[in-house]
Design goal:
Jelly Rolls, single chain, mainly beta, 107 residues, 8 strands
């Protein structure tokens, strides 16, 4: 879904990146994602969250240290357009994979 090792690291200014989901089910309410920080130069944190909420939340899905690769799984709400955004506190390569969906349909 996202691999900044190809496109360039998430900048230290923490720019949001819209991750649009064309494959999300119509009733998807949240995404189950795995987020990995790959070989950061400095310590920092990143958060994946629903776009359209204004500023990013001041919590993290992943914390990372220099010269390490760490990953974490998160369940993240989608916005009305079924999108996610990502914010990083420092310049870092991120890899984000969608592992599944949480739907709003009761079965």
């Amino acid at each position: 879904m996202l691999d900044t090792r190809v496109t360039g690291p998430v900048p230290p200014t923490g720019i949001d990146i819209d991750l649009e989901f064309g494959l999300a089910p119509a009733d998807a309410a949240a995404a189950i994602v795995n987020i990995a920080a790959v070989d950061p130069a400095t310590a920092g944190w990143a958060v994946v969250y629903a776009c359209g909420r204004g500023d990013h939340p001041f919590v993290s899905n992943i914390n990372y240290s220099p010269m390490t690769t760490v990953s974490n799984r998160a369940v993240v709400s989608l916005d009305l357009g079924r999108r996610l955004c990502v914010y990083s506190s420092t310049k870092v390569h991120l890899v984000i994979d969608v592992e599944g969906w949480v739907t709003s349909t009761r079965t």
